[in-house]
Amino acid sequence: MRKLLILISAILIICSVNLRAETEKECFEKVSRSIFKFNEGLDNILIGPISRGYNKLPEPIKKGTGNFTSNIATLLSIPNHLLQGNLDGAGDAFGSFLVNSTLGVLGFADVATGLGLEDTKEDLSQTLGVYGVQNGCYFVLPVLGPTTVRDSFAMVGDTFLDPFATMTWRQKEIFNRNGKKREYIGVKSATAIDFRGKNEKNFTSLKENSIDLYSATKSIYLQNKIKKIKNSDILEDDDWGNLDN
Amino acid sequence: MKKFIFYISLTFLINYNYLFAYSSQPKLFISELVNDVVLVLSEAGLSVKDKNQKIEEIAKKNVDIPALGLYTLGSVRKTLDDEKLNEYNDLFSKYFLKSLTSRLSEYSTQKFEIIDEEQKSTSYTIVNSKIASSDKNPEIKISWRVYTKNPEKPLIRDLIVEGLSLAKTQKEEFASILNSNNNDINALLDKLKEFVSN
Fold first, then answer.
1. Which residues of chain B make contact with A214, given a CB cutoff of 8 A?
2. Of A209, A210, A223, the CB nearest to B168
């Protein structure tokens, strides 16, 4: 708990320095572009082919995998809904996890959505965003991809908040018992492959239609983050109004 | 001669389907336009080239490509002379139409549905729609920014797919190219030429 508090304080201090910075500000663009190229290569030779293979699996297997990883991600939503003061959201997330883990056979079937218990996924970066903490500068991490100062700290914070991470990745640290990091990595990898597989068309279209793929990816990442923080699909941009002047 | 007149009339009738003026009511406008696009994309007898040509014709009449180009250029648009601006507009139009036809062909087989519309101002209405999920694809939410300053002739200015604005993404892409080249428009024009010619 102490570690989590130190981490949250660190995020607030670091990001408050950048409160006035524009969201599109880069930390170290040249390095990020090189890492982005490396990630692109990794996607071409490993992640892309795996996700295309995954897409060829029978539909029930893909659906089951998506439901299973989504159900586990719900565990992280519960504390974040609470931290955002959203009791209804926390209740829905808890109900969704309970129903899907039991009636949905360990989460492989999504029974909860049919019962009106849909979880809006929340994580610590969204919670900090709701508190008004800005992105800080943008950069790219090897393998993990686009992030910002706030989001990278929040990603570490999530491993303290997430009950699944506590039971696996941090079990040794917290309970002094042998941790099962492989299970954590396995579920996170399955989540990534499921996401990449579902968005195969979008990834291809983005690659084919971008004149600067790095910037297009950055824009999409930052827009998506704002959308998730505001829980709104339409983001207003004053420049549309300026066009007529 | 009779045969010739018959073919001319037939060609006119077929094309009329795609080019007639759509409703001025934003929700209906989008619905009619998308139905036409789906019709073109699913027409069995048409080659890909002909389909793209028809889509481009529809887009030229119903998307505000010049305004989209100016928005995408950001504040740099105020610093350009007429010659450069015309060159940019011309290249942007080609770039936009090429990327549009490539993107649209992916979604030809899915079911489209209008949800509702929100009037944001006298100039803008957002029409919310969705592409229904299928066995292979999840549901996709698409919002259309419709420019309604001329109430008789609405025009599309942006497509927001799952909350991600295509215009904003392009704007930030262009801004990045300009920023890394001291706001030199020629660097952006070269990139656009490269894309259009490939």
1. 176
2. A223
Give the list of residues 6+ apart from residue A152 with CB closer than 8 angstroms, or none.
A139, A141
B129, B158, B168, B198: best mutation site toward chain A, by most A Cβ within 10 Å?
Answer: B168
B120, two tokens:
């944001």
Q: Which two tokens stand for residue B8?
A: 């001319």
pLDDT tens digits, one per residue of B69-84: 999 998 888 888 999 9
Q: Distance between CA atoms of A23 and A148, rounded to whole angstroms?
A: 9
CA distance A231 to A227: 6
Could you give the CA distance from residue A108 to residue A101 in angstroms, rounded to a whole number?
8
Is the CB of residue B139 less than 8 Å away from at least one CB of chain A? no
Q: Which of B65, B30, B68, B37 is nearest to B144 (CA)?
A: B30
For the segment B8-59, what is each residue's pLDDT rounded down to a tens digit? 555 544 454 445 578 889 999 999 888 888 888 888 888 888 888 888 899 9
Run of H or E including B158: strand B155-161
Chain A hits for B103, CB-CB cut-off 8 Å, are 205, 209
Name A139's bridge partners.
A147
Q: Positive or negative, the Cα torsion across A65, A66, A71, A75?
A: positive
* Diameter of chain A measured on Cα atoms: 66
Indicate the pTM of the whole model: 0.84
pLDDT digits (tens, 9 = 90+) for A15-35: 544 433 334 688 899 999 999
Please state the domain extents for chain A. Answer: 2-229
Say if the Cβ atoms of A24 and B121 lie within 8 Å: no
* CATH for the stretch B2-197: 3.10.450.710
Give how far B43 is from chain A: nearest CA, Å.
Answer: 22
φ, ψ for residue B46 (rounded to 5)?
-90, 140
- What's the CA gap between A77 and B122, in Å, rounded? 39
Q: Which of A59, A209, A212 sits opposite B102 (nearest CB)?
A: A209
DSSP chain A: -HHHHHHHHHHHHHHHHTTTS-TT-BSSHHHHHHHHHHHHHHIIIIIHHHHHHHHTS-HHHHHHHHHHHHHHHHHHHHHHHHHTT-HHHHHHHHHHHHHHHHTTTTTTS--TGGGT-------HHHHHHHTT-----EEEETTTEEEEHHHHHHHHHHHHH-HHHHHTTTHHHHHSS---HHHHHHHHHHHHHHHHHHTHHHHHHHHHH-SSHHHHHHHHHHHHHHHHHHT-S----THHHHTT-
Of B162, B156, B194, nearest to B71 by C-alpha is B156
